[in-house]
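Subject: Protoporphyrinogen IX oxidase structure
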Amino acid sequence: MSGAATWAEAVVPHLKALHLGFLALWVAGLFALPQMLARHDRTDLRAEFAQIRRATHYGYVWAITPAAVLAILTGGILIFLREAFTVWLFAKLVLVAGLVAVHAWAGHTIIAVAETDGEHEPPGPLAPTLVTVALVLGILFLVLAKPGLADLPLPRWLLAPLGHQLPFDVPSR
């Protein structure tokens, strides 16, 4: 076994631990943000409204977004270190894109509430929380069950090469 392969195998558990930690922080933030946004009530005292708005903004910018970026980065590195180019993984990446969309929606809502001076009312926390729960449960199912999705009826253009060369070498098993 080569030194590079040994190094890669040794670093995988540490990257997985980092990935799970960043993912836990990101998902916790995605659950907390809709709850915090629901507390943006302009009828509160000005100081109370400013405090919850600052907490939401700083939590999003300084904790949740960096955790999201680092979760995606460590996950991407793990994909290539483990050479995990499987159908279930690509399905998981679609669900991760859904988490990114929820994250972007939360950021947009935070900015809209802060900059519209009472014109934008944040939605209730139920819908974004349910969407996040569904995405997380789907990701957990795919990661833990690793279902054989190779027999899914996918479009032909997704299953057959189109005759184009990739700009990089694809690892083989």
